[in-house]
Amino acid sequence: MSAATRVFMARLAGTQVFDPIGDEVGRVRDAVVLIRAKGAPRAVGLVVEVPGRRRVFLPLTRVTAIDAGQVISTGLLNMRRFEQRAMESLVLGELLDRTVRFTDGTGEAIVEDLSITRQRTGDWLVDQLFVRRKQAARGLSLRRRGETLVVPVDAVTGLAGSTQEQGAAKLLEAYEDLRPADLADVLHELGDTRRLEVASALDDERLADVLEELPEDDQVAIVSRLDSGRAADVLEAMQPDDAADLLNELPDEQAARLLELMEPEEAKDVRRLLSYDEDTAGGLMTTEPVILGPETSIATALAQIRKQDLPPALASMVFVARPPLETPTGRFLGVAHFQRLLREPPHASVGSVLDTDTEWLTPEAPVGRVTRLLAAYDLLALPVLDSEKRLLGAVSVDDVLDHILPDDWREHVDENLQEVPRG
Fold first, then answer.
1. Running along the chain, 423 residues long, what does each successive block of 10 average in pLDDT?
2. Relative to the CA of 35, which of 266, 275, 376, 411 has its CA 20 to 30 Å away?
3. For the purposes of burial, counting CB atoms within 10 Å of the CB of 93, is it exposed (0-12), middle (13-18) or buried (19 or more)?
4. Has residue 211 been placed in a domain?
């Protein structure tokens, strides 16, 4: 083991994990500790994110070195998805931002970090806490934040649990580099109370992106416990089809109340989607694909599909129509495929490179027809048109997969893998 026998855990988040020959196998996303009735909490392993966004357990007994910017492990990782067990606590997910009380009666503090130290026995124990003392409200005090200090773990109580609301600033700071899908995985693994605390600390746009990646049960649990005004703001920030899917899972009275609280323009598309059966193209489509007029330059079209928040499937083509360009549009003209746009001069118009033979769907088309057309023509998205050939929206392959896969498919990806031993 490396000479660095004390490690502050918040600083370890995102650290690369290497195997003995120097190949990167993943990144540290959390650490697992056992909080015992007597004695210091014992650290038993790291939660490591490996390719494929899977989180696996790496026992500390298989860690040979923890140095600046890297963790060295022995041998291969067991690739079974990490599942938190009873009596285990996640350092970043559950212990940071927790309110603890000083045993000497001098007040309360917020845990901002904690250190683990390797003992002669080989065990890793939590020995110190980096905390920020809570300031009592004293009118217009200029000192906004309490002093920070490092204290022994036995100098406080309340680390094992608290009835008070727990903050999430340090957890989100540790995970600020995560994509929405990865952060959704983190939230999914947290307990119900902690999940809501973390979700509530996200801004509307970030929470909307994360909700779109969560299973429906988690979405409903979070939105149902948010203040109604905040929930409506988050729904406005979601893609209309995702917002409609979520509202479909809520009780009718609650869904109606949230729709009334949304801005009329934002609620209009969602109401339209809710009018279609969820097993049809209309129920699956998004009303916000990239829609351009035929005179738009290819350079502008490429700039539109480069937007970071555009799903890859919808970035595979632009939909070209006569004005108005908001759905329902004027007459639909065709699509311009991404690869074709790359081969043409930037100053040319998208109208000059149209594919006018693309298959299209009516909003009443059943999901079976949607999947057959996507597969038959190797497409990532299809236009949905009304009887007057106006573009209503587009169905993408990821929307179809989300619909036809079992609700719990994420939970069974690794069910055939071996059980993970834990110390």
1. 72 90 91 88 93 88 86 85 86 90 93 92 92 72 72 92 65 81 85 87 94 92 95 95 94 96 94 94 94 97 91 95 96 96 96 95 96 94 97 94 71 47 55
2. 411
3. buried
4. yes
Backbone angles phi, psi at 301, to 5 degrees: -60, -45
Sign of the Cα torsion 186, 187, 190, 196 reads positive
The pLDDT score that the predictor gives to residue 3 is 47
Q: Is the peptide bond before 180 cis (omega within 30 degrees of 0)?
A: no
Give residue 122's pLDDT.
Answer: 85
pLDDT for 69: 81
Same domain, residue pair 259 and 298: no
The answer to whether residue 52 sits within a structural domain is yes
- 244 with 179, same domain: the answer is yes
Look at residue 80 in the predicted model and tell me its pLDDT.
85
- Work out the end-to-end distance of the chain between its first and last CA atoms, rounded to an integer number of angstroms: 18
Q: Are strands 70-73 and 16-18 parallel, antiparallel or unpaired?
A: parallel
Residue 280, domain member (yes or no): no
Q: How far apart are CA 123 and CA 43, in angstroms?
A: 8
What are the residues facing 109 on neighbouring strands?
100, 133
Interior angle at CA 416, CA 413 and CA 421, nearest 5? 105
Residue 381 phi, psi dihedral angles, 5° rounding: -155, 155
The answer to whether residues 5 and 117 touch, using CB atoms and an 8 Å cutoff, is: yes
**Phi/psi of residue 73, nearest 5 degrees:** -115, 165
Nearest-5° Cα angle at 332, 327 to 338 = 90
What is the structure's pLDDT at 1?
47
H helices, E strands: number in the chain:
14, 18
The residues pairing with 126 across neighbouring beta strands, listed in sequence order, are 116
Torsion of CA 66, 72, 73, 74, to 10 degrees: -120
> Rounded CA gap, 97 and 71, in Å?
25
Helix axes of 228-237 and 204-211: crossing angle, nearest 10 degrees: 70
- What total number of domains does the chain contain? 4
Structure tokens at 189: 């693994």
Does residue 383 contact residue 369 with C-beta atoms inside 8 Å?
no
Q: Which residue has the tokens 């494929």?
A: 52
**3-class SS at 164?**
coil
Residue-range definition of the domain harbouring residue 201: 175-275
**From the centroid of its chain, how far is CA 393?**
25
Q: Are both 112 and 70 inside the same structural domain?
A: no
Can you give the pLDDT at residue 176? 80
